[in-house]
TrEMBL record:
This is MATE family efflux transporter. Keywords: Cell membrane, Membrane, Transmembrane, Transmembrane helix, Transport. GO terms for cellular component: plasma membrane. The keyword Ribosomal protein does not apply. It comes from Blautia obeum. It is found in: Cell membrane. GO terms for molecular function: antiporter activity; xenobiotic transmembrane transporter activity. The chain crosses the membrane at residues 12-30, 50-75, 95-115, 135-154, 166-189, 195-216, 318-339, 359-377, 384-408, 414-439. The keyword Cell membrane applies. It is a multi-pass membrane protein.
Length: 454
């Protein structure tokens, strides 16, 4: 049964990492099309203020999405470890546990975000001229958290078994569906920002349902049996031990970006629109880093289950080389011609907004290598079963981003706001490298004597 999936415990690490990363990268790009389609169509057919409304909620969406992605990825680390060890019955129990925990926590998140959304927007200094649209947009997105949860959990389960291609295919379908629905709701029915949010939720739910149907039809190793329902407290506690810190790690990052957004909002809706457009451009290019991180989480978990320390080190080295090479290429692109993608999002005051977009892209481009380090080593360390240590790097990231954002806000400096992210990457990346070498030293000496727990 194991051979029908992708066993990452054998074969050339570089080849495996590249073949696994590429579909995830494409999938991440298509997932960004949800928000990008919203931004493009809203900006073109409704106007810059509506674009700013969608953009002003971007950090809240990242908070929601990041928590969901981090939590589901954390819950399935144990799935990948069981798969790597060849324990199919134990693997199915982890799937049941992840499903139960995801539903319960997803329901709680939905209620909390919908109850406290208005005070949060006020706290973030959301401009009054876009407040109503921002609130309407993000409330609909919050109501669709369980749709996000369904896709991200099932895609994480498939990736834990080494299958990174099927989640990509379903994302492509749902991204195209999102664009069509955007056009229908925004242009045909004149729903504005609310229409974009409805389209996003429907598209996300569709991708989740497609994953479920595929698993039912084509992945018998995941077919749950009666005995698999007896999950046990140990599995639940281990999943929470890894999943919650991973979710909080993403949340800490999101809180930092919310601080940046709050400082940015003070500068007015025009710069918010520019920052939004620049952020969308950045997100397309930087999805590769998230893909590398997801790959290393699965690679590390499977090889931890198989007990191969040497192979884990080889994987980290190979992925780092890939990350550095990609960073150089991506930085060259985004710092030279990236600004011209502004035309995708903006129909008014294009030249003014493009100049601000260019400032942002130049500020972040020179720091792409630290960003690669953050994603590869944070997720890779989490895949080894460590939950709390990477979260400490998240605290460093929050500190760097928060301090720069606050100073930039007080100085009303747009370039300062743009440098908040790079400050976070440098601090967190340095700390993660120290953690990695410490962990590898421990495992090389004790031969997994700590069983991968922090």
């Amino acid at each position: 049964m194991k051979s029908s999936q992708n066993d990452m415990t054998v074969g050339n690490p570089m080849k495996i990492i590249l073949s696994f990363t590429f579909p995830i990268f494409l999938g991440n790009v298509f997932q960004q099309f949800y928000n990008m389609a919203d931004a493009v169509i809203v900006g073109k057919f409704v106007g810059n203020k509506a674009l700013a409304a969608v953009g002003s909620t971007g950090t809240i969406m990242f908070l929601i999405y990041g928590f969901v992605v981090g939590m589901t990825a954390g819950f399935t680390v144990l799935t990948a470890q069981k798969f790597g060890a060849g324990d199919m019955e134990g693997m199915r129990k982890t799937v049941v546990g992840a499903g139960v925990l995801s539903f319960v926590i997803g329901t709680i998140l939905t209620i909390l975000f919908m109850v406290f959304m208005k005070p949060l927007l006020i706290l973030m200094n959301t401009p009054s001229d876009i407040f109503a649209d921002s609130y309407a947009y993000i409330m609909i997105v919050s109501g669709g958290i369980l749709a996000q949860m369904l896709y991200n959990l099932l895609s994480s389960i498939l990736r834990a078994l080494g299958n990174s291609k099927l989640p990509l295919y379903f994302l492509i379908i749902s991204a195209l569906l999102n664009i069509v629905l955007d056009l229908v709701f925004i242009i045909r029915f004149q729903m504005g920002a609310k229409g974009a949010a409805v389209a996003t939720v429907i598209a996300q739910g569709t991708s989740g349902v497609l994953c479920l149907l595929y698993i039912i039809a084509k992945v018998p190793v995941l077919h749950i049996k009666r005995d698999d329902l007896q999950v046990g407290g140990t599995i639940y506690s281990n999943q929470l031990r890894i999943g919650i810190p991973m979710a909080l790690q993403y949340s800490i990052t999101a809180i930092g970006t919310m601080m940046v957004q709050s400082s940015l909002n003070i500068l007015g809706s025009t710069l918010v629109a520019a920052y939004t457009a620049a952020g969308k451009i950045e997100q397309v290019v930087t999805q590769a880093y998230g893909a590398m991180g997801t790959t290393m989480a699965t690679y590390g978990a499977q090889n931890m289950g198989a007990g191969s320390v040497k192979r884990i080190r080889e994987g980290f080295k190979a992925c780092t080389i890939v990350g550095v090479v990609y960073s150089i290429v991506a930085a060259t692109f985004i710092m030279t011609v990236g600004k011209f993608m502004t035309y995708l999002f903006v129909s008014e005051d294009v030249k003014v907004i493009m100049s601000s977009v260019d400032i942002y892209l130049k500020c972040i481009g020179i720091f792409f290598i630290p960003l690669a380090v953050v994603n590869i080593y944070r997720n890779g360390i989490q895949g080894l079963g460590y939950g709390l240590l990477p979260m400490m790097a998240g605290v460093a990231e929050l500190t760097g981003r928060g301090i720069v954002a606050v100073i930039a806000g007080k100085m009303r400096s747009y370039p300062g706001v743009c440098l908040a992210g790079p400050a976070a990457w440098v601090l967190a990346g340095g700390l993660l490298l120290v953690m990695y070498f410490y962990i590898m030293n421990v495992h090389m000496k004790k031969v997994f004597g700590t069983n991968g727990k922090d």
